[in-house]
Design a protein that fits this description.
Length: 281
């Protein structure tokens, strides 16, 4: 218990130290529980964003990293080697295509070998150094409300919570958002409802979540998009073929395009409200 408390205090200090505007936009993708399709969303959303932007997707699920499976990659380098100081951050980047690069995770982390606060801080600093190479960085976080997840969410410009329509999944999403609000990170929280059978199902699920947040936490969230349940999605996962890269335009692809457009608008507004500072010589 003492060790966990010390880690919370360290992360809180790191939050206060590093929470400042950045030229490189960061998007964190999280879920309250496993099985919502978060990683499927992260991988395919990153691909859609890379159609017009330079994107770096980082697998930050420290215990169950599996994004490499969706890309059908066998990683030669992974994030564990970086945290173990065996390689530089840029040396663990894998190129999927010219616009989409990946940092793949490792499933070998135990509680004792989770990255330290100092290591997380250094990673964020190293990511900032890549601002001339990428437009967007996406974090695919592990499920749940670990201290590391909440901290990385607070450090991101946009927070996307992926939920399924079931009440249990919505309750878990509620808990993630509650933690964000407790950490003063209530801006730009968007919700994706995944694995939707009927469109009305997504509308009802989001309305229920929004109503609960309004009532109990006096806060609002935004709806990003819904992703329909699909036999083609299941097949693509089994065959390890990235859906967005191998499927013609359908309802799923259109959902990712809609999400990309919404994120672009949010970034445009953010750039207007927080323009880059250029000193006058």
């Amino acid at each position: 218990m003492t060790g966990q408390l010390d880690r919370i205090i360290e992360l809180d200090k790191l939050y206060n130290k590093s929470h400042k505007s950045s030229a490189l936009k960061k998007i964190a993708i999280a879920s309250g529980k496993g099985g919502t399709g978060k990683t499927f969303f992260a991988a395919n959303f990153a691909y859609q964003l890379s159609v017009s932007k330079k994107v770096l997707l980082i697998d930050l699920d420290f215990k169950l990293a599996n994004i490499h499976l969706l890309f059908n990659l066998h990683p030669q380098n992974n994030l564990a080697e970086y945290f173990e100081s065996k390689k530089l951050f840029e040396d663990v980047i894998t190129e999927y295509n010219s616009n989409l690069h990946l940092v793949l995770g490792d499933t070998g982390f135990s509680d004792k070998s989770l990255p330290s606060v100092t290591q997380i801080e250094k990673m964020l600093e190293d990511i900032e150094k890549l601002s001339d190479k990428y437009d967007l960085v996406l974090f695919d976080l592990g499920a749940g409300i670990s201290n590391e997840n909440i901290f990385l969410l607070t450090q991101s410009d946009i927070k996307i919570i992926v939920a399924a329509p079931e009440p249990t999944a919505l309750m878990d999403a509620y808990m993630v958002i509650k933690q964000l609000i407790s950490n003063f990170a209530k801006e730009n929280i968007l919700v994706t409802i995944n694995r939707v059978v009927e469109p009305e199902e997504a509308d009802q699920a989001f309305d229920n979540l929004r109503t609960a947040l309004n009532h109990f936490l006096k806060t609002n969230i935004e709806f990003l998009v819904s992703i329909p349940e699909s036999a083609q999605i299941r097949r693509s996962i089994i065959e390890q073929n990235l859906y967005s890269a191998n499927q013609k335009a359908d309802k799923v692809i259109k959902s990712f395009i809609t999400a990309e457009h919404k994120i672009s608008k949010i970034n445009q507004v953010s750039n207007i409200n927080h323009p880059s500072f250029e000193p006058t010589l």
